[in-house]
User: Which sequence fits this backbone?
């Protein structure tokens, strides 16, 4: 009996991950606002304390079951508001930080609290971004949150190394994926996002990866016992060259 927990699984990469683990006969749970799937649970990650309570309640119910493996994927993310943060509505600014930073921390820490003692293989994956390593004009909040979260995961990996049944905490860089997030990037004005032309060109050149292909690579990373806690793994190294 295996369990996959995914944030932001209503669409995009998170949906592809949910469908992949469903096809593998895993029990799947996804958290999103729209919660459109039979395996969805409604949660607004812009409200981290409310989201934490939802995670805690769900995980407490699951922790008593005899799992052979648990994979928790912090996948939900938002770019909005795109543009210089000083020009943006403070409520939107805070919502970005809650979704991209505070709530993934709540997801991962509630999973650790609930599942720490379970004697099975356990993995926490943070779906990160090149924006964790590089600044982008117009994405300052997203870049800050992704960078901070990667270092959170590295630190958690160090803490987990002392545990009898550790959760392996890993950062994953997914590359560019053909999802609504990319559509929102292409729709930004050059004033808000000066690099917009580069992203429009990538789409035109067919450089965006299908979410299902990236999901397959993410699952291979979770499967790979050679990937150590604290690692930063590039999906490009796990893509199936024969899959489209
Ligand atoms: N697409 C890319 O090229 C790319 C590149 C690098 C990294 N990434 C990362 O990959 C991950 C997945 O991105 P994606 O492209 O699949 O994005 P997407 O298509 O925009 O999907 C985002 C997901 O996050 C959920 N979400 C957003 N705000 C939420 C909120 N307040 N509460 C709960 N859930 C919320 C959405 O669900 P609801 O709207 O239903 O709530 C949706 O399921 C993100 O972490 C992103 O930063 C993507």
Assistant:
């Amino acid at each position: 009996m295996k369990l996959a927990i995914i944030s932001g699984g209503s669409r995009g990469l998170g949906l592809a991950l949910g469908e992949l683990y469903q096809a593998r006969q895993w029990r799947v749970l996804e958290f999103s606002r729209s919660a459109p799937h039979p395996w969805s649970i409604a949660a607004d990650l812009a409200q981290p304390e409310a989201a934490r309570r939802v995670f805690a309640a769900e995980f407490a119910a699951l922790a008593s079951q005899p799992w052979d493996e648990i994979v928790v994927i912090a996948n939900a993310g938002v770019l909005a508001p795109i543009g210089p943060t000083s020009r943006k509505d403070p409520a939107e600014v805070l919502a970005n930080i809650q979704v991209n930073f505070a709530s993934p921390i709540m997801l991962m820490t509630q999973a650790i609290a609930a599942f720490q003692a379970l004697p099975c293989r356990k993995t926490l994956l943070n779906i990160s971004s090149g924006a964790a390593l590089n600044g982008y004009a117009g994405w300052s909040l997203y870049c800050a949150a992704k960078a901070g979260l990667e270092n959170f995961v590295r630190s958690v990996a160090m803490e987990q190394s002392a545990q009898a049944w550790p959760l392996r905490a890993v950062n994953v860089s997914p590359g560019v994926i053909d999802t609504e997030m990319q559509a929102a990037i292409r729709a930004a004005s050059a004033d808000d996002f000066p690099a917009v032309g580069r992203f429009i060109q990538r789409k035109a050149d067919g450089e965006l990866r299908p979410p299902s292909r990236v999901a397959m690579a993410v699952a291979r990373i979770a499967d790979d016992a050679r990937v150590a806690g604290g690692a930063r793994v590039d999906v490009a190294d796990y893509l199936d060259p024969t899959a489209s």
The helical segments are 12-23, 48-62, 90-115, 140-160, 180-186, 196-204, 211-223. The first strand starts at residue 2 and ends at 7.
